Amino acid sequence: MSVSRSPEKTCLIYEDCLYSYRMVDEYANKVANLAKSLGLKFGDTVSLYCTNSPQFIWTFLGFLKLGITVAMINTSLHSKSLSHSVVSSESLAIIVGEGRMGLPSSQLPSDFISFDDLMLRALPVPVDRSVRRDIKPFDTCCFIYTSGTTGYPKPVHIQHFKVYAFCNVLYAFSITPEDILYNTLPLFHSAGMYNLCSGLNVGCTIVLKKKFSAHEFWEDVVRYNVTIFQYIGELCRYLLSQPPSPLDSKHKVRAIIGNGLRKDIWTKFQTRFKIPLILEFFAATEGNTLLFQLSNKPGSCGRLSPFIQKLEPFPRRLVKYDYDTAEPLRDKNGRCIPIKPGEVGILLSGVNPLTKDLPMYKASRAENDKKIVRNAFVDGDEYFNYGDLLYLDKDYFLYFNDRIGDTFRWKGENVSTTEVANILTDIDFIHDANVYGVTVPGQDGRAGMAAITLYNDSELTTKQLKVIYEHCEKELPHYAVPIFLRVLKEDILTVTYKQKKRDIVKEGFDPLSVSDALYFRDSKRATYIPLTTDLYPVILKSKL
């Protein structure tokens, strides 16, 4: 629709290059015809391993024109995590983006194909709509990966109806084709992808950044007359840490949308940068609901009053929970226990009967069932368990509180504790690893920490600390590398031999509170160093 309405309107601005809607559509057509010539067809899956770029966008759109599902691979991944992500999606091909290959066919091994060479020969004509006539709303549009208890990133089914539903959220801003969106978030994440699709749906101009830069952010916003941008909490904190500039208020931003903007910096951010409206939302890649609020209530991600709950066909509920199991607590009748205003609860969201059989993860039925709570309030009901804790205030506004279970959030990414533990225990002198996130004052999310036990009750040597550092750098994405290490004398286990985290999470990394040996990741020395009482206050003031 956007192409037919305004074909010559600027669709994308990237590194000062302008691409019209017609150009983007023609490149997408070339991708579709190219894919068809390679024998790819409706129902197939292809992996896309590419950083933010116009090529990412028209490659994604081109595959959709044939009804091909696109697996969005996180470009921070490498080694086992990368191979698992591609294999688990059952992709028939992987498209590698600019800067990673970019060679002509003559310089590539025989089992590689130069996508650039093929694009030069591909025709920009549209493929017939009949090719995708069998696509249904509940079919998978793409896979976006999330961390999970299986240890590796898990491909989540993102159905076409879900993409379309989220595209309409921006209409809460009364968005028009005259708006200019600025996106610095990775397109392979749900936040960046939904932002892109929302802009294309409305017919906006989208300013795309390859990677977020706090130094260049407001320069870009002012230069391109940006009116709306998407954020995550960490992005806002980075911007606040920059020195004041005249550009802070010389922009045309009328609204921003995102999540993770905590109450402690909300007002500072909105006041300093003169942002009229902030739409904070709460969602999850594999989730089935969306919360948001337009009241400019600092820190709030939505509202859930008793009146709203009665009107909802598939209600959202906050219930009491068991910290160790991440499961709702049950009363004597076996029912979940709703919280009261002023309390924290785990979020449950009612499952639509029309979508109850749709898989969340590309995994076994048992794996998908782990996220479903049944017979929560009445016999036969089903709720999706977000595993997230929200605080409900006296006016029924909601505030994100924490994550429980086997993931935590750091630098805008969900970190799988199981994945990190598995990587650490690949090291021959580490017997076991209990991984969790710890709170660091002034930082969003939780920093990674690993409580490890060693064989023969030994102590870590300088050489071994270097080995751990290098192994993690090689095998883990940067955001998942543990920042702190703790050497335990013995594993902390439950009676059923499950790892216990609650006490060691509370103890954190303060050397005055922890008697075990503690270590800190020092990127300048490329190793872990002892975390002493002198170093502790320095770490608290650093940006980690």
UniProtKB/TrEMBL annotation:
Its EC number is 6.2.1.3. One of its GO terms (biological process) is long-chain fatty acid import into cell. Belongs to the ATP-dependent AMP-binding enzyme family. Residues 3-307 form the AMP-dependent synthetase/ligase domain. GO terms for cellular component: endoplasmic reticulum membrane; plasma membrane. SUPFAM superfamilies: Acetyl-CoA synthetase-like. The keyword Transmembrane helix does not apply. The keyword Lipid metabolism applies. This is long-chain-fatty-acid--CoA ligase. It holds the Pfam family AMP-binding. Residues 419-490 form the AMP-binding enzyme C-terminal domain. Keywords: Fatty acid metabolism, Ligase, Lipid metabolism.
